[in-house]
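Quick one:
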Amino acid sequence: MRFLIDAQLPPALARYLSESGHDACHVADVGLLAANDAAIWAYLHASDYVVVSKDEDFARRRKSVASGPAVVWVRLPNRTRTGTIAWFESILPDMVANLVRGEPLVVVF
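Output:
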């Protein structure tokens, strides 16, 4: 699975996902840290990444189109980097299973 981690989540999450066997990067890694949602959406289309974001705009955008990149909408209160990684460890198998089944929008909380 290929993941692009949005700016509201730590770069360490991309490293954790990479160490877990996925192709993952943070928006900062690809020069999109200050990019608007439209630019990130275009990048997702071109690169076949799933965006992992706390930004509801990506969830709304995905709901409004018939096809396009999958979105993992993270409904997690602010936590430390370590707390965020620990939380992802517990939900990663289900999150990936939903994406493999073809779910275009996966909401995790």
